[in-house]
Amino acid sequence: MTDNRLRLIIPSFNRACQLECLLRSIFDNCKAADLFSICTFYRYTDDAFASGYEIVQKKYPNVQFIEQSLEKSFKQQFLDLTDDSLFFGMIVDDMVVLDGFDLSDRQFELLKTRDDLFSLSLRLDAAKTFSQPVNQAARSPKFDKDLIWRWMPRLSRDYRLTRFLDNAILKSGFYDWGVPCPLDGTIYRTDLFRSFFETVDDFKNIPFMERNLWAALRRFKNAPPNMIRYPRARSISLAMNSVDEYHDYPSLGLDPNQFNERFLAGERLDYSPFQKIVFHACHVVTEPFWLSRN
């Protein structure tokens, strides 16, 4: 029997400090977050980072923590994270939730009932006119009254994949608007996600997942052509540091070890200043803010 809930997966690597901030932002802003089935799919490289995750687990006992295995198929590990929830979503550990979202929202109701919707974006709104990963202005699509737009090009000759497969960039110039399956803030119907994910080639770790998701779109015959969003984006990626061992995405370049040291010493990130800003990109290179210590 399908459970009318949201299964929300958070991939995390050596970022307990930022993970704690993300979880805090979810529970602060989503009134029904206790009804979400949240799972952190995490990995760390040493005891200090492991200690950080232990702190987060103790603070959020209702959040499931599953450690990644480098010895097993990542595709199968990710499929095993799905459950009988009606919705399945992904949000990464360097994001924060700026505004709440709820399963009673019209966006979720339309995602449930309309077969032409591939996903619900938590990261996009009309202000997003710049794609930070490629440092380019982005064209905005046309939206209907329900804030639905067509991500899928109507003719294959209208676009081609560039060499930036890891970012799933379209030559059309829509950039983030043409990507229906990013890891950072996307919700699907679980049945659709499973059928789509079955077509994805296996990947050796999380940094390669998004590239394989995009490659699978080209052979997923039943891909719905549209997406839906909120009037204001519910989340933002804060590119303060990078833990990706394989790709050189833009970030401020701060040391993850220093973040972890401050976290272990009792300091916590403050996401509230970002709630007052209108962002023009889904990813923002920024300095961190820290909560005042009493």
At a glance:
This protein has 294 residues and is of the alpha/beta class. It is built from seven helices and 13 strands. The chain has helices at 16-29, 47-59, 74-81, 106-113, 190-197, 209-217, 256-264, and strands spanning 3-13, 37-43, 64-67, 85-90, 95-97, 117-121, 130-131, 136-137, 148-150, 186-189, 226-229, 235-238, 283-284.
Verbal overview:
The chain is of the alpha/beta class. The protein has a domain at 3-127 and 179-237: Spore Coat Polysaccharide Biosynthesis Protein SpsA, Chain A. It is 23% helix and 19% strand. It has 7 helices and 13 strands. The chain has helices at residues 16-29, 47-59, 74-81, 106-113, 190-197, 209-217, 256-264, and strands at residues 3-13, 37-43, 64-67, 85-90, 95-97, 117-121, 130-131, 136-137, 148-150, 186-189, 226-229, 235-238, 283-284. The strands form 3 sheets. The protein has an 8-stranded mixed sheet. Strands 5-12-13 form a 3-stranded mixed sheet. Strands 7-8 form a two-stranded antiparallel sheet. Helix 1 (16-29) runs parallel beside helix 2 and helix 2 packs across helix 7. It is globular and about 50 Å long. The protein starts with a strand and ends in a 10-residue tail after the last strand. The model is unreliable at 155-169 (pLDDT under 50).
